[in-house]
Amino acid sequence: MGPLRVDRVELPGTGQLMEIARPANDDPLIDEAAADPEQHLPYWAEIWPSGVALAATIARQPGALDGRRVLELGCGLGVTAIGALHAGADLLVTDYAPEALALCALNALDQTGRMPDTRRVNWRDSDTTLSTLQGERFPLVLAADVLYESRDVEPLLALVEQVVEPGGELWLAEPGRPPAARFLEAIRDRGWAGESERWEGPWPDAEDDAKGVVVTVHRLLRRCEAEL
Fold first, then answer.
1. How many domains would you assign to the chain?
2. CA dist., res. 161 & res. 168, Å (int)
3. pLDDT tens-digit series, residues 140-187
4. Which residue of 45, 63, 75, 164 could cross-link 93, Cys pair, CB 3.0 to 4.6 Å?
5. Burial class (CB in 10 A: 0-12, 13-18, 19+), 66
């Protein structure tokens, strides 16, 4: 993974600050991805606005996570995980990259004094993921910027319908990519409903501010089985 750098991250609208360790140079990680048969690029090595917005959402309503069993899909460097641990969640984080899991745990311990449970999964393979999670269902699942490509939509739909318990929620943060729009249309067709909130920064990377990146956090409720 190579040397690390530490970036300061401000959660918009909260005044809260984090210090996040991340790879100083992700070029070697991109080179390694070329040998990956599934071409998983090292998205985890960046601090994305969606993770920041989701952490800010949690910071503004921490009671929604306090004492609850929570699953995060695609934890990356741990920005959202830190927010969830600060809010008192009993947290399990997952990622495809073992480096992401290691840095998420490191950053969480440094910023909160706690580490989440970690499991390595490729959530695009929903059957293997479910096996790894040992059939556990969660009242709340968190996901920030996981819908990069069209191939992400169907596996994520299949997975969340298995891991979110009836009456539970999916909190999804996304910056307006077309796969996210397709996912949201499909999941609402399946009866999920909820509220959405837009976040306009400021973001850790000034280029994201210059581009006018807007993140929407969707709080989607799965109906109870009696209502299905």
1. 1
2. 10
3. 999 999 998 999 999 999 999 999 999 999 999 999 999 999 999 999
4. 75
5. exposed
Cα–Cα distance measured from residue 226 to residue 119, given in angstroms and rounded to the nearest whole number: 32
What does the pLDDT look like over 30-41, one tens digit per residue? 445 445 555 566
* CATH code where residue 196 lies: 3.40.50.150
Q: Tokens representing 12? A: 């918009």
The Cα–Cα gap between 103 and 22 comes to 7
Contact by Cβ (8 Å): 227, 186: no
Q: Which two tokens mark 86?
A: 């600060």
The boundaries of the domain holding residue 28 are 4-227
Q: Tell me which residue of 6, 4, 3 sits closest to 17, measured CA to CA.
A: 6
| Three-state secondary structure call for residue 155 | helix
